[in-house]
Amino acid sequence: MRESDIPLTAVSTPSGMLWDWLVMPHGMTNSPATFNRRVTHLLRSVRDFAPSYFDDVFIHSRAVNGKSKVKMHKEHLRKLFCAHAQTQALREPEEVYLQG
């Protein structure tokens, strides 16, 4: 969210205090689409093998140039994690879940 937009998200509490959202809450109009567009933009360098849908990333690996599927998958994971590190999008390492 742009810093100039933060005051536009202000909500009042029963005690009369005013609170501003520092990140876009999902209750706001178009925020899911904005979030998806942001994730897609952050992962554009790996989109050939790791398309994303909201906060899910699907890694597709196959054997190429004499490398096994496992070796290619490890390489793809390394590239994906490097993309996260470069954009600083992954702030909490414990948020990473590997299924499989």
TrEMBL record:
Organism: Phytophthora fragariae
InterPro entries assigned to the protein according to its UniProt record, in alphabetical order: DNA/RNA_pol_sf, Rev_trsase/Diguanyl_cyclase, RNA-dir_DNA_polymerase, RT_dom
Domain Reverse transcriptase: 5-81
One Pfam family linked to the record: RVT_1
Name of the protein in its database record: Reverse transcriptase domain-containing protein
Domain of life: Eukaryota
